Amino acid sequence: MRRVNLLKRVLVDLGLEDERVKLGWISGSEGKKFAEEMTAFDAKIRELGPNPLKGGANV
């Protein structure tokens, strides 16, 4: 968890949104929950748009 928090701070320092990284705890038996979390995360990343450091290229 500390590494993810550090990574988020680095992303902000680089000019990226910290929402581009997410850490979650999901059991192997929670396939439906995993799919829901990934769908929501994918939607959030699409909402944020392409990596601004890549000059508009797809991430």
Q: What distinguishing features does this structure have?
A:
mainly alpha; flat; 59 residues
What pattern of helices and strands is seen along the backbone? Answer: HH
Largest sheet properties: none
Radius of gyration: 13 Å
Poorly predicted runs are none
Number of strands: 0
**Helical percent range?**
40-55%
How would you explain this protein's 3D organization?
The protein has 59 residues and is mainly alpha-helical. The protein has a domain at 25-59. Helices cover 53% and strands 0% of the residues. The longest helix is centred in the last third of the chain and has 18 residues, at 31-48. It is flat. It starts with a helix and ends in an 11-residue tail after the last helix.
Care to give the gist of this entry?
The chain has about 60 residues and is mainly alpha-helical.
Explain the layout of strands and helices.
Layout: H1 2-14, H2 31-48
